[in-house]
User: Fold this.
Amino acid sequence: MCGIIGGVSPSDITSTLIDGLHRLEYRGYDSAGIAVVDLHGRLARRRAVGKVAALAGMLSDDPLHGRVGIAHTRWATHGRPHTDNAHPHMSRDSVAVVHNGIVENYAALRDELTAEGYCFISETDTEVIAHLVERQLRRANNLREAVGAAVQRLEGAFTFAAVAVSEPDRLVAARQGSPLVVGIGDAGCFVASDTYALLPVARRFIYLEEGDVVELTGNSFRIHDAGGRLVERAASEVQSSLSVSDKEGFRHYMLKEIHEQPDVVARTLDTWLEGGHLNPDRLAPHARALFAQVRGAHIIACGTSYHAGLVARYWLESLGIPCHVEVASEYRYRKQVIMPGTLLVTISQSGETADTLAPLREAAGKGYLASVTVCNVPNSSLVRESDIAMLTRAGPEIGVASTKAFTAQLVALAILALALARRDGDIHPAESAWLHALRDLPESLRTLLRSDLGLDALSSTLSRGNHALFLGRGIQYPVAMEGALKLKEISYIHAEAYPAGELKHGPLALVDDAMPVIFTLPQDHLLAKTCSNLKEVQARGGRTMVFADDRAAASLQGNGDVVRLGVVPEPVAPIVFTLPLQLLAYHTAVVKGADVDQPRNLAKSVTVE
Ligand code: M6R
Assistant:
């Protein structure tokens, strides 16, 4: 989703901004741009559709120089990817802005500003911000007041940064709806959508609160809150482990991240284990007392994180805890019935997903016992605004298609389920077997990743078609959903997941010899049922690909490709079965020559509704 970077520096800032844009690329975007107040005090701008490399190429042909500037990667919402729609947007050559979010009242503002003689060049909602700031600047004492006054007129999500020729030594930015971090370094003061963009130039970071307006000069910054009061916000030093490493010899970030999963699982698990045993105090000092009051859970998330929530429902219910799971964008607009003792659980890789953040913010006063977030980004909005944060230790995930963050979420959710299942301090009878399976999991995943699963042939079959069905039963149904999501995200093949038992109620009509049908087959109480569904597909000439526990595979007869995954303990089966499905999607996308790490139209951090 849109990425913002800007700053004020004692030296030329252009290369810092372009480097920052490269670091924001993983978020997903379709065009990029930069504007600086140049050495003559004029606004100079370059914009390009496509990759940041195209913008960088433009700058090497036609350089810009300035000490104050803003830059942006755009993920189109209003208006197609086009140079005219790329940010920064300017007003009367005196103000430039970059924006992340959606200005919901832009149409009315556009009419108002047009009537006053402002000229609109783009199809975006953002251009109204540039004109509003320019108009306010004529009335206000300075850029900060002008930005503050513009903010008062805007509705929706409108984190933005602005520079003006009238104040060539400063940058003013406002946070509303999507994150903005201030970074302080030897080379100046900066703002950006995330910490990663600023790692080469800043060591101290300040995470702005909703409604904050920050004013940067080369060596200082001031923050005003939503009420216009000058405020201090806590600064944190960056941890060196936050640095975005390279691909370490892997062809794509996604493949590297798939291979990191054994370590990620081990690291995440260690957070809450002590001597191999679960210590609920490690979730939060008050976790034991709080969890004793929990009578059920509502899990809210989007995309892959939603699938993690669906897996968790099976786990929680198997341990006797009622659970409801819902896609955040739907949950938010429904009338919810919240029973006493309900825990709100949000799950998010980024911690900034607007759809997931909104229900958390609206939860206050609705009767939830407390909120827990399972999240991969420390200091993210979800982490800061939840009562308890369970941080997954996946490290930065660069591939837009989530892999290691998902498995880390599952580990955290398994731990949460066990902690909630303890009643009056009594350990649930299943806990010991679960922990045993979890402790052995990193090694099982390593073995799996080292083995030749024979996915090349399956990927090449999938890559020749346009559709695929993923089927699983019970807890494997969300695993199938995640497998289908991975395939469609990065290979653009239409993939649908169904509970295998639902096949005969409709989707069976799709099955012929051109429809690959992917099954996951663990050794569990549903094995015989899933095998029957497999037969139904094979009887109709469907091309089956079965990912099976070794014991389950032994009961398979007949045709079809079978990928054996070893003996998989039931509590960790959703995690183990996920890895080959990630690899299947990855190899299929590679065969198709798709942009694996930055699939078209998608964003890593979805900060608009
Ligand atoms: O950052 P979040 O986990 O809240 O993001 C939720 C979804 O946008 C995300 O999982 C998305 O579905 C990914 N592209 C999945 O690969």
